[in-house]
Design brief:
This protein has 1494 residues and is of the alpha/beta class. It is built from 47 helices and 61 strands. 54% of the residues are buried.
């Protein structure tokens, strides 16, 4: 018996044989269980438990194996257990419905396809426990049993353990069965990796990232082939098709002149005749509407609408106005009265779905349709109106996107009886609009299709003739009566022929899928109008079959017979119900669309039509739009049934899908077009689209029109087969064109479902659509996961679905996502709202619980990787001629010449300058340090600083016993102590090394850096405060470092009050003054040596550039430990005598406005900050500018605000800072950036005079090839780049080729080299690796000026001469910095700058707070910080992959989603990508989710 086999196809043959002898009642109970399971009303576990109990008495125990375990192993397909018998063999009909009813051929095709794949291990994604368990109430409840979609009929195409068979084993296909490979389903799993849901982050099975990398690298190596067109692709060979005519419409003598005339006739001559019977959810008849009642109720409603509704004494409605009809699916009577009432009142009904919530899927689009139709009134029933969401006033809510509506209830008590002499006009059918039917397009737009009175009448005429309807027949209708076939047969044509319709509501079908069959039996109905889904459901629940007869049926109209998968339902249904009186020839599939109405219909048997046809088509050929029947590839075929003959009175042709509507050849698939008086006439209010759909003129290959009448596109894809039968293979809406091959969404759904769906996903809850990424369509599959499916099972199922689709359709899936149960947007009558699902996917609002992206396999149109050209030696083309290179001016520039500016004979050391100031201007204030409250916490004049420095020097000599030249680590918080101890070291002849103190709350990560600097700098002593000294020796510190190996630690809190005997005088200016240690963005700790000469030269350059004098004040909000920040904090004030207002950046965390308030309070003209400070102000104060203004914060005093940086200017940040604080008087010209690096901490600095910084726009694509191509602002792929300030006095810059070391021309990209008196004199390292970096500090050009000694900055950039003039009247040369060479990523032969990819990624979704990228093996890894709920984590995977593909032509290998703050940044606000990479490889990031893109 089927149920037994289907549930446990893994039972041994013996048990299968036992199953066939089960008693009838056990089989019925099994059938009920099956239904519950397939619709998600019971969990897999519960199903197996109950099933095991039922079968236990009938299955002999296998030695030593528990029954429940035997049931668990469902490996063989049930078809193996059943010998195939002849079609009408009695035992076959009763016992092996499974064989006919499951998608045998398709399942076997899938099994064989999977068997071809070897055990290819794929790295499994890892996720956090919190993401793993989505503990919403919804996630644990099985989804609505309406799992099948109205449109896709997905329930029809069942997979392994499911039911109906898409590729049916028809007699002509039977011989293939023997040849189909029997593939084991479980052995061919895509992955046998396991996930560890308990832990937080496990990268792969063995938790080593490298294994995953190797697997991915292999996959990439195989898959990165540039797509070539298939030379063997099939091409159509037949002759051009000729338009096909249906039989002419017969002339009927007493045919009414309009539908209303027919209603009037039956309502007055046959008032007692039943018109419509409505049923409740128990299947009982609630009310039967007679034709007399229908007529009188319509009259009342028409009279009320025209005469009793008014606004400001004007009638509310006029003839031709549109009115919305809002009735639930279980109330056909009220709908029918409202529909005909509107027609009588000459109003245009617009039937729509009942809106349940403000956020219904697609509801906004329906509102747009109502608005564009000018609808102001909605008719509804009392019960429905009570159920609508209400505002607090009791009025019905205005739904999102809807116009304001007046709601009118049409129940009896609200309508009035018209006077005796009132008769509505009953006009002949005209071309005026009768009603508007809504339709949703593939993109989710809702259009209104207008149907005229004459088309409505002609369609009823054509259906009456084609279906052979006779007066007084009984029809059961399961379809939605508001639109499509349910409306045409159950509301319109029925009235034409005085038919009695039994309307079966959808809610009853969900409770009792057999209800429609029972009603056919009870009422002896002659015609039933159903969808394949209804046939399929009734097969699952055949418990009450025994006393049912379908012998009264002369026609079973399958409304979605155009769906390629309906054939399996039809055959399976026939197979089971033939013994109940169902005749094979009464099954009549039909094809229709909203625009064209009915296109073709298989005629009932009495009309003497040719026998039905079936076609077994090659799916590969279909993807090229070609029909091939005798296919070699037995696995991927599509079996379709015909949809009969063209509707009466119509002409049909098949045209090419794209471009001019040329007629197709006879063996070519195209869009079916119809010319008939029965079609819709337009899309309401959309004349352009109407012309393209309702008024096309097909042409022959010579370009001659085939007819003088216009045709309507049906959106059905198909061809005309033998005997002039129409075949449909898909719909335009489900068409996905991937690399110029066409695939049907429904076909892909079926393949996914054939991979054991029941265990992991809900059967009817799968959506397949395509999204456009990088100039091609990409297939996305989204399914609802069962709550009880494990991570590993789901991942394995996903991997196998990918393989099955790849094998059967020869197309790659771009993304497969599983979402929790009940979370996909639903269409009104069950099924999935595809366009809404797609919208959510693109917006990152789908919230999947599992994602598998496969860009490597399906993105085959990437531009070819760049090959480096051999022979990059300097050729004649780049020879220097005078000062031209490659025909351009050499890219060389310099700041003002300092040698002429002042008397350079007497050189001053910094300690001499301080001593001199202490004598000359002892009370002149040099430093003010502000605390978080904005008050001065400490200050220092020249003499105070000098005296404090002397006491430090004494302590070093006496307590520390230090010698001249010893290195001393200064571990102080930002403040005046740090400055005083620095000068104390110089006084004592020691070499100071400033070190950021460890963070007391984060010793484990910050203390090792302190230890490392102390050790690498060979410091023999640490100067610090008492508090930090305790911290360095604490127990907590001992856990992070070896505290016994600290050198001597001296605290400066209690210093001896002594004067130093004499201040140390270095032997020459080249002596080492201090060491500057900094962690580069690539994670390298680099210390540079600064001589006394360089230190003074640096201060002099800054003094000249910023015009610093003792009368000036500047504000500094920078870390004082390295680079330009240290120089500004500790050196410049002493050298130039100006007052520095010191604002420690850490204080901004508790008071974001501290820096700007200080600038305003002290009326500062020049201020310095870092990017992290600027970001804190932008984010923290963006909404508080008004409050700041009220506190009198005014920034109009600022002439220049400089961001100290060692990176490309962050133009977006500086612009938004300027914009936000413009309201507080900040000049748009004030903000600029500086540029320095390890070899020279200050190369550029805007200063107070000179032209404003310029901005240029580069082509990002050219930049990847190391070329500078300037483009206009706003050009595609343009990258804005701001000049990094003016070159400092005494500094010379040249741009050199990174490989040949030759000079480059103006606007050419190369490495920035610098020559200046304040260059550092070299790296300070312990291990004597100076040789490696010697050329960083002393290198020469390979040709041209070979004498000058340059330092290499390690940064790429270019110089460009501008039209502006600088202070000396020369033309200004602007330096543009692109980024650090060490940071760049070499991918696909091109050079990428991480910041460019990161900028794109941050724009991809509102919840991405920060992003960093790096490479790992040959994969691009993207780490994103998620600022939002963890449920959004998996949404980011697809969006990140999309944006990097679109904008950078790169495939992301790994996406890591982490918490905010995980990406490390240094004190300048630069990302430490290499630290991040190390953390990723060491598995220390604690990620929320790690996705490996296949």
């Amino acid at each position: 018996m089927i149920m037994a086999e289907r549930g446990s196809s893994g039972l041994l043959m013996a048990s299968a044989a036992v199953t066939r002898t089960l008693p009838a009642e056990v089989r019925e109970k099994l059938a009920e269980l099956e239904l519950e399971l397939s619709e998600g009303d019971i969990t897999q576990k519960g199903y197996e438990k109950k099933r095991g109990k039922l079968l236990a008495p009938y299955i002999p125990q296998i030695q030593g194996v528990d029954t429940s375990l035997q049931i668990e192993h469902r490996i063989q397909t049930a078809s193996q257990a059943n010998p195939a018998g002849p079609k009408h063999n009695k035992s076959r009909v009763t016992n092996s419905r499974d064989e006919r009813f499951r998608s045998d051929l398709h399942t076997e095709a899938v099994q064989a396809a999977l068997a071809k794949y070897k055990e290819r291990k794929m790295p499994m994604p890892s996720k956090r426990r919190s993401v793993l368990v989505q503990s919403s109430v919804e996630a644990c409840t099985p989804p609505d049993t309406s799992s099948a979609s109205e449109d896709e009929g997905s329930l029809r195409r069942q997979g392994r353990i499911a039911s109906s068979s898409p590729y049916q084993a028809q007699p002509r296909v039977e011989h293939w069965f023997n040849k189909v490979i029997q593939g084991s389903s479980t052995s061919s799993s895509a992955s046998s990796t396991s996930s560890h849901p308990g832990g937080r982050s496990h990268l792969t099975t063995n938790a080593t990232s490298s294994s995953a990398a190797t697997v991915l690298a292999d996959l990439m190596a195989h898959n990165q082939i540039v797509q070539q067109p298939d030379p063997n692709q099939p091409k159509p060979e037949g002759g051009e098709m000729r338009p096909l005519d249906g039989e002419p419409l017969g002339v009927v003598t007493n045919w009414p002149l309009s539908l209303l005339a027919s209603l009037h006739r039956w309502g007055t001559t046959q008032p007692k005749s039943p018109c419509l019977t409505a049923l409740d959810n128990a299947g009982k008849s609630v009310y039967t509407l007679t034709y007399g009642k229908l007529w009188t109720r319509c009259l009342k409603l028409a009279y009320t609408l025209l005469n009793k509704l008014s606004s400001r004494n004007e009638p509310l409605l006029r003839p031709g106005d549109r009115v919305a009809l809002v009735f639930p699916n279980n109330d056909p009577v009220m709908f029918m009265v409202a529909f005909y009432g509107c027609l009588l009142a000459e109003l245009v009904p617009v039937p729509i779905e009942v809106p349940l919530t403000r956020k219904d899927a697609g509801s906004q689009q329906v509102g747009f349709l109502l608005g564009s139709c000018g609808v102001t009134l909605a008719l509804t029933s009392d019960a429905c109106q009570k159920g609508l969401p209400k505002a607090q006033t009791g009025e019905v809510l205005t739904f999102k996107g809807w116009p304001r509506l007046l709601w009118f209830v049409t129940d009896g008590k609200h309508v009035v009886k018209p006077p005796k002499d009132w008769h509505p006009p009953i006009r002949d059918a005209s071309n005026e609009i009768a009603y508007i039917e809504y339709k949703s397009s593939k993109e989710g737009c809702t259009m209104g299709i207008t149907v005229s009175h004459s088309a409505m009448l002609a369609h009823c005429h054509a259906l009456t003739q084609s279906c052979g309807y006779t007066e007084g027949e009984i029809v059961t209708n399961v379809l939605d009566f508001k639109r499509d076939a349910g409306l045409w047969h159950g509301v319109l044509t029925s009235v034409m022929n005085r038919i009695h319709v039994i309307s079966i509501p959808y809610s009853l079908m969900k409770v009792n899928p057999l209800s429609w069959i029972q009603k056919v039996h009870t009422y002896k109905a002659r015609v039933a109008v159903v969808k394949s889904r209804d046939m399929h459901w009734s097969l699952l629940a055949q418990r009450d079959q025994r006393d049912i007869s379908l012998s009264s049926l002369r026609m079973l109209i399958v409304a979605d017979g155009a769906n390629p998968w309906s054939i399996s339902s039809c055959d399976a249904f026939l197979n089971v119900f033939q013994s109940r009186g169902l005749r094979p020839e009464v099954i009549c599939p039909c094809a229709s669309s909203s625009e064209a109405m009915t296109v073709a219909l298989r005629r009932p048997p009495e009309m003497g039509v040719p026998p039905p046809g079936k076609a077994v088509l090659s799916m590969n050929a279909l993807s090229y739009g070609v029909i091939r029947v005798d296919t070699e590839e037995k696995l991927s075929v599509l079996t379709v049934q015909d949809v009969g003959q063209v509707i009466s009175g119509a002409r049909v042709c098949v045209v090419r899908v794209d471009g001019t509507p040329y007629l197709c050849r006879t063996d070519e698939v195209g869009e079916i077009c119809i010319s008939s008086s029965t079609t819709g006439i337009s899309y309401y209010g959309l004349p352009g689209m109407t012309k393209n759909v309702f008024e096309i003129i097909p042409v022959s290959s010579s370009g001659a029109p085939v007819s003088d009448r216009p045709f309507t596109r049906t959106s059905l894809l198909g061809f005309i087969g033998p005997d002039n039968l129409v075949f449909v293979v898909g719909k335009m809406d489900g068409l996905m064109v991937v690399t110029s091959r066409k695939h049907n969404a429904d076909d892909v759904v079926a393949t996914a479902l054939a991979v054991e769906p029941m265990k992991f996903v809900y059967r009817g809850r799968i959506a397949v659509f395509s999204v456009s990424v990088l100039h091609d369509e990409r297939i996305v599959v989204v399914a609802e996961q069962r709550p009880d499916a494990s991570e590993e099972d789901s991942f394995q199922w996903m991997s196998r679905v990918l393989q099955a689709i790849d094998s059967i359709h020869q197309v790659g899936v771009y993304c497969l996502a599983l979402v929790p149960a009940n979370t996909l947007p639903k269409a009104p009558l069950g099924g999935i709202h595809i366009s809404e699902t797609k919208q959510r996917f693109l917006e990152g609002a789908l919230h999947p619980c599992n994602v598998l992206m496969c860009p490597h396999t399906c993105v085959t149109n990437l531009p070819k990787p760049r090959q480096k050209q051999p022979g990059t030696e300097v050729g004649p083309a780049s020879m220097i001629v005078g000062n031209l290179v490659a025909g351009k001016r050499i890219a060389q520039a310099c700041g003002r010449d300092v040698s002429l500016l002042e008397d350079n004979e007497q050189f001053l050391y910094m300690q001499d300058v301080l001593q001199w100031r202490a004598q000359a201007t002892p009370d002149h204030p040099l430093f003010l340090l502000l605390n978080a409250k904005g008050t001065v916490s400490s200050s220092s004049s020249c003499v105070q600083l000098h005296k404090r420095a002397e006491r430090v020097a004494v302590a070093l000599m006496e307590r520390g016993r230090l010698n001249t030249g010893d290195h001393v680590a200064l571990v102080f918080p930002p403040g005046i102590d740090l400055i005083a101890t620095f000068y104390g070291c110089l006084y004592a002849g020691c070499v100071p090394v400033t070190v950021r103190p460890p963070h007391p709350q984060n010793l484990t990560t910050t203390l090792p850096t302190v230890k490392m600097i102390v050790e690498v700098s060979k410091s023999v002593c640490i100067l610090t405060t008492q508090a930090i000294m305790k911290l360095l020796k604490s127990k907590e510190a001992a856990a992070a470092v070896d505290i016994k190996s600290w050198p001597l630690i001296l605290d400066t809190d209690d210093l001896p009050r002594k004067r130093v005997p004499q201040i140390y005088k270095p032997p020459n200016p080249e002596t080492l003054a201090y060491l500057d240690f900094s962690v580069s963005t690539t994670g390298i700790l680099a210390g540079v040596k600064m001589s006394h000469a360089a230190t003074s030269a640096l201060c002099r350059s800054i003094k000249l550039q910023c015009e610093l004098y003792p009368s000036r004040q500047i504000a500094i909000c920078l870390d004082p430990y390295c680079g330009l920040g240290f120089a500004l904090w500790c050196l410049c004030s002493v050298y130039s005598g100006h007052q520095s207002i010191l604002v420690p950046p850490l204080e901004l965390e508790s008071n974001a406005s501290l820096w700007l308030s200080a600038v305003s309070q002290y009326k500062v003209r020049v201020t310095f900050c870092s990017y992290s400070v600027m970001e804190m102000c932008t984010k923290g104060l963006g909404s508080q500018t008004e409050a700041l203004r009220l506190r009198n914060v005014n920034l109009s005093c600022v002439r220049t605000c400089m961001v100290v940086a060692e990176e490309r200017p962050r133009i977006a940040l500086t612009q938004s800072f300027s914009k936000i604080f413009k309201d507080l008087g900040l000049s748009s010209r004030a903000v600029s950036t500086t540029f320095g690096c390890r070899v020279n901490v200050a190369i550029c600095l805007q200063g107070t005079s000179g032209p404003d910084p310029t901005t240029v726009y580069l082509d990002m694509r050219a930049l990847r090839h190391d070329r500078v191509r300037l483009v206009e602002r706003g050009s595609p792929h343009s990258l804005p780049l701001m000049e990094s300030g003016k070159i400092l006095p005494g500094v010379k810059v040249v741009i050199a080729n990174t490989e040949t070391k030759g000079p480059l021309g103006d606007s050419h990209l190369g490495e920035i080299w610098v020559s200046s008196p304040h260059n550092a004199s070299g790296y300070y390292t312990v291990y004597g690796e100076e040789a490696l970096h010697a050329d960083h500090f002393s290198t020469r050009l390979s040709f041209g000026d070979t004498q000058t000694v340059w330092a290499r900055t390690g940064y790429l950039g270019f110089l460009r001469r501008t039209e502006l003039t600088d202070a000396c009247g020369e033309r200004h040369d602007a330096l543009y910095v692109i980024g650090s060479l060490d940071e760049t990523l070499e991918l696909r032969g091109m050079r990428y700058h991480p910041i460019d990819i990161e900028t794109s990624v941050i724009r991809a979704h509102k919840s991405i707070a920060e992003c960093a990228v790096f490479t790992w093996t040959n994969l691009l890894v993207v780490v994103v910080e998620l600022e939002g709920s963890e449920q959004e984590a998996l949404d980011l995977v697809a969006l990140v992959t999309n944006v990097v593909l679109e904008e950078h032509y790169l495939i992301v290998g790994v996406v890591v989603v982490v918490d905010p703050g995980v990406i490390p940044i240094n004190s300048r606000g630069e990302k430490q990508r290499m630290h991040l990479r190390d953390g990723f490889l060491a598995d220390q990031l604690d990620p929320i989710y790690v996705a490996y893109n296949m």
